[in-house]
């Protein structure tokens, strides 16, 4: 990174205070002699109010929490940079999208929506995908989600929708879950939610990693070029590692075993130098094509099928630095869909228009006043000069007599900037009409794209969607709500509604399903990139393991950028066949199968007996099998797989189940390791699901 690229980092560095052999002081800089005892009358006596050090320390502590975000309260951030592959000057004059020599610093925050700040990472939910670009022309925020559509069409319904999905008012239950009556009541009464619900019932709502999910700006935005010509644009983020999901049963277990699963994954990837990469894609539409679709491009419950409007890949975001301090950076970052730069503008999407109000408004409570843009993580790298003054926590000291425009006393400083010199000018869209509380008829079709989503899924994804509906509605107490949901989704696909109905004791509704808009293969996760890179393997072994095998395995895994934990019966170093000691990272007590992508059992008689002596070992392998993961065993390791019921397939024809690899003594070598790594790259062996049905 050259000096120019480092501007944001340098700005943040100016605020970093590292304790390095420094004296402990009060906030007034007074050195503190004793931080262990409060000031008392004698060692057992009452504490004295005079103890200013005690009072200051306690007062600060008492006020260390700020209100959590009203939505997206739980999140995790990282720093990175954006590089542009080719100039987009044809469409936009935004400098960071036209100058390929720039490396634009940025900050990303991924989040869940419904849960509180301390809730688990792996709940079924939409993930927020918010990016703040610190451009030379000011901050540009792309505040998106990992799904390309939204629940509602008009922002005025956002409070209602959020009230319905959040825990119910009488008892604040359930935490971070949509599986309850008010949410599904809302869905059944507001059918514009149908398309988004299909996404939320799919694996997209259970990401394996923040690094393995797509991002979408959702709304139709506008690009404006130097000549003032506009184009409609939709934004996409495409992860280099592909798009992959967890299994529902697994997500629930991870929620207990490691509620920080997704944030830990991101933190570790960046610490290890496996920098997550996402390519920026754009879909472009000419203004004259605004009405050439069977949906309204201003309707946020609709996507533009990639097969009809291709996604052009134009640049790349790399996340390469973890935060120094979660609170100062991730908690205090304030995104706003209205933070925009010349060359990018809004459309009349009624959801977007309402968001333009909400994001600044919410920070006033959350960050305590109007000066939150001065917090280091929010400061632009572009200079800030205006006549705003005062307010809670004002940091800037503005000298001078004037704080108004126009003025003569300071020569009209700061001065307005003409559009041709970089001053922001709103797109001069012609609008006319009557003031009216209504929605366009072109927003009325709530089902064709929901149907397209369903029909674009693989059979495995369809079966997961059905199971998700059955789980969620199975938690709904009101039978009337359950039935209404079945009635609504029978308008998406009859087969879908029938299958849901069977699972929840409702009556299937017949003959009203919408025709799918089209089929869009891009919607299926099965069509995405597959790689073993950055996956995590549990290598189970016991005393007498073959040192040469394990060393060669670890070397092959490292070469494929796969990480491995040695899992043994306890944390005592384990002796191999040549006497080499290996130190386990986890024991059967501390490790959980759900935290790994694959399992390798290194088999030698004594070692396998040792593992089998703890009943947890078979459970570990069985769970990996049930979650469709790659499992390999060498030599005697097959006995552990047998104990876990992982070696016989459902057909009973003697063939190994899909994704289970076995090697006798003589087969252990480079090609076995290669097959193992190729199997890990498949992510999961979903066909096992169909095999077992
Ligand atoms: Fe929102 C936060 C994404 C509709 C009102 N929203 C928030 C965040 C993301 C999104 C990623 C978290 C930002 C962070 O990490 O700090 N929101 C979306 C998307 C939407 C959307 C993709 C639809 C396309 N949001 C939406 C509407 C409204 C809001 C319609 C209200 C009119 N959103 C908010 C908010 C939040 C927020 C209340 C809470 C915390 C914050 O803004 O900073 O203003």
Can I get a quick summary?
With about 700 residues, the protein is α/β, with parallel strands linked by helices.
Written overview of the protein:
The protein has helices at residues 7-13, 52-62, 158-165, 181-189, 194-200, 248-257, 261-271, 326-331, 350-366, 448-456, 459-474, 479-489, 494-504, 547-559, 605-612, 616-626, 638-643, 670-681, 687-691, and strands at residues 75-84, 103-112, 127-135, 138-145, 215-216, 221-224, 230-239, 277-286, 312-321, 344-345, 536-540, 563-568, 574-575, 581-582, 586-587, 598-601, 630-634, 660-663. The protein is of the alpha/beta class and 693 residues long. The strands form 3 sheets. Strands 1, 2, 3, 4, 5, 6, 7, 8, 9 and 10 form a 10-stranded antiparallel sheet that branches. It has a 6-stranded parallel sheet with strand order 15-12-11-16-17-18, with helices on both faces. It is built from 19 helices and 18 strands. The chain is globular, with a radius of gyration of 28 Å. The chain folds into 3 domains: 75-185 and 199-374, Catalase HpII,  Chain A, domain 1; 447-523, Catalase, four-helical domain (Hemocyanin, N-terminal domain); 536-691, Class I glutamine amidotransferase (GATase) domain (Rossmann fold). The mean pLDDT is 96. Helix 3 packs antiparallel against helix 4 (181-189), helix 11 (459-474) crosses helix 13 (494-504) and helix 12 runs antiparallel to helix 13 (494-504). The structure holds CIS-heme D hydroxychlorin gamma-spirolactone (HDD). Residues 69-72, 75, 109, 111, 128, 130, 143-145, 150, 155, 158, 218-219, 300, 333-335, 351, 354-355, 358-359, 362 line the site of CIS-heme D hydroxychlorin gamma-spirolactone (HDD).
